[in-house]
Each structure stands twice: as C-alpha cells, then as structure tokens.
Amino acid sequence: MTDISGAAPWCAVDLAPGQARAWLLQGEAVLARASLDTVPDAPDSGDVAALVARLGTPAVEAPTVISGLTGAAAPVPVPAKPGQITPVRIGPHTHALPGLCQSSPPALMRGEELRIAGFLALNPNWDGVICLPGAVTHWAQVSAEEVVSFQSFLTGAMAEALTTTPLLHAALSGVDWDGDAFAEALDTAMSRPERLAAGLAGIHAEATLGTLSGGAARARLFGGLTGAELAAARPYWLGQQVALIGPDIPARPYAEALARQGVPVTRTDADRMTLAGFNDARRRISAT
Amino acid sequence: MTDISGAAPWCAVDLAPGQARAWLLQGEAVLARASLDTVPDAPDSGDVAALVARLGTPAVEAPTVISGLTGAAAPVPVPAKPGQITPVRIGPHTHALPGLCQSSPPALMRGEELRIAGFLALNPNWDGVICLPGAVTHWAQVSAEEVVSFQSFLTGAMAEALTTTPLLHAALSGVDWDGDAFAEALDTAMSRPERLAAGLAGIHAEATLGTLSGGAARARLFGGLTGAELAAARPYWLGQQVALIGPDIPARPYAEALARQGVPVTRTDADRMTLAGFNDARRRISAT
Fold first, then answer.
1. In chain A, which residues have their Cβ closer than 8 Å to the Cβ of B157?
2. Is the pLDDT of residue A260 over 80?
3. CA distances (Å), origin A114, targets A45, A67, A96, A273, B285
4. Beta strands A100-102; A94-96: pairing state
5. Is the pLDDT of residue A2 over 70?
6. Which tens digits make up the pLDDT trace of A169-180?
7. Residues 6 or more apart whose Cβ sits within 8 Å of residue A223
8. Do the Cβ atoms of B36 and B19 come closer than 8 Å?
C-alpha cells in the first residue's frame, strides 16, 4: 500500500450529516479542497470516491483517512482519549476513524471526536467542556485529554426540519435576525422549555396575521431550541469553561446564549480543528 | 343566488392543513364525499373548485360553505361563541367561516371552531375544555357556549417534520407502537420537557447502533412531544373534563396521555362534529 507517512499527497475526508468535505494534503499543507452538500445518511465508498475525485488526486491512488459517517468500524466507548483512537484499515489505501459511543445515556459521535482530538492537540492540558454544534450537537466533558462523558441533542436537525415544514416555511425563510427576539425566546425557553410547540404555533399565527417579521420568527425558533438545549445541558456548562467548535452557523446562537449565562466561551476555527485532527490521526497511522 | 335553505344540494368544504375535504349534502343527508391530501397553506378558489368537482355536483352551481384556511375574512377575536359566528359571503354561491383569533397569547384557529360549534350543537350546556389534535393542536376553554380562551401547539406538524428529517426517517418509518415506551417518554417529557432534542438524539444513536425497535422509536417521539405539550397545557386540562375532537391519528396519543393523568376524556367522532358544525353554519346563513 501507499505510505501515508511519506511526502506523497494524502486525502482527508470528513463525512458529516448534510455535508461531506475532503482535503488533498502534502504533509500538513493543504493542496486542494472539495465539498458536497448532499450526503446520504450512510455514505458508501462510491460517495467517498466521488468526493475524492473532485480533489484532482494524482494518478497513483493517494492514501485516505475518513472520519464521520463511515459505519466501517465499531465506535469506541467513553471514557476514551480521542487523541489515542486508532484509525481502522478498511482498504489497501484507506483508514477510517471509528467514532465514540456511550451506553448511558445512549449516544453516538461520528466525526466530532476528530475535531476534539485536533483541539486537544493544539491546546494541550486543556480541561473543560467542548460543545460541537451541528445537525446533532454534542457536549463533551474533557479531562486529562479524555472524553469522560458526552450528551447529544438533535437541535440542528430539528431547526432544519421545522424551517422546511409547510406551516412555518414562509415565516422562517430569509436571513434576517432579531437579537432582542432571540434573547427573549432564549430566556423563556430556559425557564419554560415545555412551551416550544406553543411558541412555534405563535410564530405560525402571527406570521399568518402579518404581525411578525422574518427576523423575529427565525430568532424565536433558534431562541426556543437553544434555550431548551441549554436548560438540559446545564450540568455540562454550569461553572465550566466552554470551547465551541463549529462554523458561525450553527455556532453563533450557542455563543450568544452561553455568553448570556455568563459562561466563558472560546470560539475556535472548526476547519483548523478538523485538519489538526486529521494530521493527528495520520501520525498515529504512520506510527503503527 | 342559489338558496342554501331550500331542498337543493349544497357543498361543505373543510380546508385543513395537509387535508382538504368536501361533502355534497341535501339538508343534513350526505350524498357524496371527496378529499385531497395535498393542500397549499393558502388554498385559493381553484383548489376549492377542484375539490368540489370531485363531488360530481349538479349542473346548477350548488351553494357552498367553506371552513378552514380560506383567509377570506378577518378572524373573530375571543371570547366568542362559535355557534353564533356569521359566515361571510365571498361569492354569489359561496360563504366562508372566518375563524377565531386571540391577541394574548397570539393565536389563530381556522376550521377547528366549526367542530367546536358542532360539538356544542350536539352537546348543549357543555362546559369544559375541548382539545382538537392536528398539525396545530388547539385547547379551547368553553363556558356557556363561548370559547373563553385557547392555546395552540404546533405538535402535529413537528411530529411530521421530525419523522421526515433524514437523521430520523429510517428510525421512525413504520407503523409499530410500543405502549410502554410511550408512557415512559411521556412521563419523562412532562417532568423534563427540555430534554426533547436529547431524546431525539438518543433515538438517532440507538437506531444507528441497531438497539431500538421502530415501535419504540415512534412511541418515544410522540411521548416526548405529547408530554411537553401536556406540561404546557396543564392549566387547560387540570381538574377539567376534556372532549377530544379528532380522528384516531392524531388523537390517540392525547387520549392515552390524558387518561394517564386521570383526566376524564370524551372521545368524539370528528366527522360528525364537522358536519354538525356545517349544518349549524348553514342554518345561520339561511336565517340572514
């Protein structure tokens, strides 16, 4: 097989729900990037090959490391150190990262543990809570480079589903944002999380009656969802320092909501964490 | 115009979110029925005409009464007596019912007030709470034939949206039902409604790991949504008698959940309430 430890180019493939991305690298230098916005929930080697082809890889097949929705290897139960998880060989040129799982409460992380490994590689000896917003948002308690436990929320996928539902679509389309409406909905949801469906009916009613702006409607949806999640994740962030790993969408509502609770939040560059994680994984493959 | 009070056939059209239905009647006798499962959120006269055409109406255009998503007339603010709302003439042969609205909390009911009018016509002097499950579920406090206030929840549309979201679709498709899982999720949601998104992430994780049956997944989704709604609607049902107007889907989870709280629940035949409401409205049109 091709040697991933050498100077030859290699590929990193990140299969996240709703977005697959790939990088062509030489050492740690990025030679090319590609992405696909339509990813099946269980992508196969054909999906990976289609994505890698977009990188314009050399004629000799490049060694490839895949993270995310591979389903190629049994996930590692927590507590576990993301920086020590061994990528599994799944083909002559290909390794896959197995993800993390937890038995109680039942939870599964596929891909985010790579970003945690990247963050910890760049921030040695960091203890605290890492929040990774996405279609599924994960909160991971990290101590001594180990994910001790994590809690997952389907908040991002809920927001996406509710935005496209016929009764709310007209009210929620657009890009405006009403910061005051977000703060108010957040506070309401943290104290009365059971009122989520009532808040959505209110959005529908007011939008139908023409008394609600698109910016307020979107802010109320995200305020309601984020507030409920923060109320449920309180044991994770209360009295902790929190690192947020994710692009501005979907991370920004979390940053605003946590700041509003007085929680010290570190924003990070998600792409940088992802690449640091892939480089970390590549070093482990080379060492085996 | 055609006389709706006479012996000639007339049409009743109910435009609900996701389902439009029509009846051809002579007096109170049903001559024909038709339905459409794809209804735009703001149906127009063309949609109504297409539905009415399915009834095989006589050559002379029949007088028609429309309820639901017409948007043809300003809704009536509560408190209001559904049995005294005057249908509005919107065409030479057509009347529309205007719906109910409430300023605080902002809420809008379009069509369900017709079923309430039908229920009250069939149950004179009934006081209590009427729950009408649907894409938007309404809880109406009824006293002296008047809707004093109501509270709406987008629970049905949420269930539909979440069932079709890619991350949950495989787990939730099917028709199985696990009653124990429903009861457990219901109790959890009533005490910890903020955990809805965590529960959905759990469904996704366990279904992906192959440790969750479809019946348990569906029961958990509906238990979580119904439990949160019951927690929020507690002032409506606590210590009250509740009449449920709706077909088995979506009414059954509500019936099970309310029975579990010890609330006396009356199930009703939604079609019968709808037709009683239309007949009631027709009598008011004739009297004008």
1. 165-168, 200
2. yes
3. 20, 7, 11, 8, 68
4. unpaired
5. no
6. 999 988 899 999
7. A181, A182, A183, A184, A185, A186, A188, A189, A253
8. yes
Phi/psi at A225 (nearest 5 deg)? -70, -45
Backbone angle region of A207, left / alpha / beta, with phi > 0 → left and psi within -120 to 50 → alpha = alpha
SS3 content of chain A, % helix, strand, coil (to 5): 45, 25, 30
Which amino acid is residue B169, in one-letter code? Answer: H
Interface probe, candidates B101, B132, B167, chain A, greatest A C-beta count within 10 A = B167
Joined together, the tokens standing for residue B199 give 């529960």
Condensed to tens digits (0 to 9), the pLDDT of residues B59-102 reads 567 899 999 988 788 999 999 999 999 899 999 889 999 999 99
Q: How far apart are CA A145 and CA A120, in angstroms?
A: 7
Distance CA B244, CA B254 (A): 8
Tokens of B238: 């606590």
B200-221 burial string, b = 16+ CB within 10 Å, else e? bbbbbbbbbeeebebbbbbbbb
Amino acid at B261: Q
Tell me, yes or no, if B46 comes closer than 8 A to chain A by beta carbon: no
Structure tokens at B34: 């038709």
Any chain B CB within 8 A of the CB of A36? no
Please tell me the distance from the alpha carbon of residue B260 to that of residue A48, in angstroms, as a whole number.
49
Contact between chains at A162 and B158 (C-beta distance less than 8 A): yes
Amino acid at the residue A45: S
Confidence of residue A8 (pLDDT cuts 50, 70, 90): confident
What is the C-alpha to C-alpha distance for residues A277 and A201, in angstroms, rounded to an integer? 42
Record: contact B136-A161, CB cut-off 8 A: no
pTM of the model: 0.94
Residue A96 pairs in a beta bridge with: A66, A88
Name the residue with tokens 């495989």: B170
B contacts of A108 (beta carbons < 8 Å) = 204-205, 208-209
Beta-carbon contacts of residue A55 (< 8 Å; ≥ 6 apart): A11, A22, A23, A24, A32, A33, A34
First vs last Cα of chain A: how many Å apart? 14
- Give the pairing of strands B100-102 and B76-77: parallel
Bridging pattern class, strands A64-68 and A29-36: unpaired
Give CA–CA dist A95/A64, Å, rounded. 6
**Does residue B87 contact residue B56 with C-beta atoms inside 8 Å?**
no
Cα-Cα-Cα-Cα dihedral of A144, A279, A23, A118, to 10°? Answer: 20
Q: How confident is the model at residue B128 (pLDDT cuts 50, 70, 90)?
A: very high
Closest residue, chain A, to B206 (C-alpha): A106
- The strand order across the sheet containing B265-268 reads B146-153, B137-143, B128-132, B242-245, B265-268
Say whether residue A209 is in contact with chain B using an 8 A CB cutoff. yes
